[in-house]
Task: structure prediction
Amino acid sequence: MAKASPENASQDVPHALRVSAAWAWRLGLILVVSGILIWLISKVSLIVIPLMVAGLLAGLLSPVTEAMRKNRVPGSLAVTITVLGFLGIIVGGLSLVGQQLVTGFADLRDEAADGLEKAERWLSEGPLRLTTDQIGNYAQDIGEAAQSNSSTIVSGALSFGSTAGQLAAGSLLTVFALIFFLLEGSRIWAFVVGLMPRKARAATDGAGRRGWVSMVHYVRTQIFVAFVDAVGIGAGAAIIGVPLALPLTVLVFVGSFIPIVGALFTGFVVVVLALVANGWVNALIMLAIVLVVQQIEGHILQPLVIGKAVALHPLAVVLAVAAGSLLAGIPGALFSVPLLAIINTMVRYIANREWESDPALGAPPTHAEPMDEQPTHNNHQEGTS
Result:
């Protein structure tokens, strides 16, 4: 009995099944490798996250440094002025907000006490009809619950202290990396490209530069979105008489850089402050303002404006934020869209073999900011020879 040849055996398998199997094992391999990479990155997140934040800040601040260099300011001096100016703005803004918060909360102390009295009066005279003894018993139960869970509270406080220490270390690493990205970003990128095989250097160089441009566009557009959120909610709070309108505006601006979580947290703070200061009617109006602004940000600005700036479909932006939040929490939500934009740009660049006709790769070396549109070296022509 003759055995079936491999060709005949393969013909017995439907073509659609063979194609599906070929796609399946390749996609499975990609998922496995991606999972391993995510796991490895999670183990060194204290290093990776500051470097990524420094990269975003470098994309924001590099035009300032480059403008000073064009005016013949030495590179090290330009970077020093840029970084110190940026840190000065951050520290000055936080100091101003902190002073207003201290003053404002001191003024709100009496209003908060009055609000607690109103809440107690509503519990006793409202639909619940609770007596004073019942309210006291509930308060006592809450105190006993806090005492019985004191170990959990203490461990949470210690965890917060550890997180604060990691935040301080990450902040220092971010500033340190930002200085070198602005000062020697071109040399760092040239070193990375030099690690590639000779024939792949031109493609890597061009794809990296295009990815950098996409990230810069994202950062600038995200600042615009955060500005719209902050102005909308801050102006609404000032119009209806919510105290601490300026600190709330700054809080919303900072929180808008963290999709979903930042918007929920800042909106909650604004509404609670309106409730304590001006009552539930004012709080409901403030809640309506926050919801309107966040709906505009979530359904118009984030998908359309940012999606257009980074050449991504609005659905891809929404799914990227959701997937990033599930996989890595707040850092995942913050970096998911710029990472997707960079990967999308680099893959398209390589798939279309654009490095073969990219004029930027043939330009002479310059001292430009890290991975910008201007090349920093001219060694990659060897890869195309």
In short: The CA atoms of residues 16 and 22 lie 10 Å apart. Residues 152-161, 363-385 have pLDDT under 50 and may be disordered. Residues 75-125 form the longest helix (51 residues).
